[in-house]
Amino acid sequence: MNDALYIVDQPALLDFCARLGDLPWLAVDTEFVREKTYYPQLCLIQVAVPGQIACIDPLAVPSLEPLLEILCDPRAVKVLHAAYQDLEIFFQLRGAVPAPVFDTQLAALVLGHGHQLGYAALVEQMLGVRLEKAHTRADWRQRPLASEYLTYAADDVRYLGELYTRQQALLRERGWLDALAEDFRALAAPDHYRQQPREAWRRIRDQNRLRGVQQAALRALAAWREHQASHHDRPRRWIVDDAALIELARRLPETPEELRQIRALPTGVRERQGQALLEAIAAARAELPEQWPAPSRRRRFSPAQAARAAGLLELIESRAAQYGIWPGALTDRRDIEAVVFGEDSRLFHGWRAALLGRENLAQFLPGASD
After folding, report:
1. pLDDT tens track for 63-75
2. What is the DSSP string of 76-136?
3. Which has the closest alpha carbon to 154: 56, 261, 268?
4. Are strands 52-56 and 5-7 parallel, antiparallel or unpaired?
5. How many whole angstroms separate alpha carbon 148 and alpha carbon 6?
6. Selecting from 3.30.420.10, 3.90.10.10, 3.50.50.60, 3.30.70.20, what CATH number does the domain 5-193 have?
């Protein structure tokens, strides 16, 4: 049975928000689709507070501002599971990220429940409740929403408050609550959600196979695609897919004739956007070598550095095993290199520093045993 409010008009939203009062936390989730768009299409917002759940229809309510005001109120913790995409949506709506936040998925990782654990699995592990999974691929744009959809949506926030309370207690017992708060502050930083077209190339698979001006060309092409996709609100792959961008950057065509030799580039894209693609490549060719992306290559360790890196990896694996955490979620080679070379590293911050111990990390810094 669905016991949640279904809010489809402005007076009902105003009434719900007025009754929230001064609360220590709110549980929040969203339903959205983005298969055919660049930006996620928000279809439903679920909010739970003690004794009340509401499913708010953004396709029907004229203004979400009363709710957004509450979500951005720093006095209440916003509890979410796998929060990034939800926070991205709220940033797009208001230009601000709800804060402070508590992400039950990240807390689950730190507490040894598993890496990127789904909400339903976490509820079952911690609370012994099995949730219905039948509507994970529902089209949330359809109206009216079936009652079983609303029940499913309400369940997505129904247990977040209890998970939050239990996880807080466990983190406090370990002395990690303040450390994890540092990670949650980073998650709510607005810069994570601002468009950065010049960095889009880094998300493209096989970009590390390119070198020098090729990477500069890929950066220019990916930035052009990002602008096109966001302007037309279309998926990036609908503009031009990654394989074509990689091939363009690798071969660096200069003329329409050379462009026709790029087999990965569909004819329609070449005819409509060929000139723009050539201009992006030409702009990259005109850059000075010092303006190209810095090559990402493994740095060589001296024997002493290699010994410190091995010792650090041993510490990481030991501590991860002790707390049931997947080591790959804790660190990667770049983190280890940064410590050994005396640079900033994720290992010095948040839950990772709490897990490993800052005094333990200090022994692997330059000068500790050289």
Report:
1. 999 999 999 999 9
2. SEEEESS-HHHHHHHHHHHSS---SEEEHHHHHHHTTS-TT--HHHHHHHHH--PPP-TTT
3. 56
4. parallel
5. 13
6. 3.30.420.10
User: Is the CB of residue 244 less than 8 Å from the CB of residue 269?
Assistant: yes
Residue 369's pLDDT is what?
58
Read off the pLDDT of residues 300-317 as tens digits, 9 standing for 90 and up: 899 999 999 999 999 999
| Pick from 223, 261, 263: nearest CA to 243 | 263
Burial degree of 358 (CB within 10 A; 0-12, 13-18, 19+): exposed
Q: In angstroms, rounded to a whole number, what is the distance separating the alpha carbons of residues 192 and 95? A: 12
Q: How far is CA 328 from CA 115, 270, 311, 336, in A?
A: 9, 41, 16, 12
Cβ neighbour number for residue 257 with a 10 Å cutoff: 8
**Tokens encoding 317:** 């694996």
* φ, ψ (nearest 5 deg) of residue 60: -115, -35
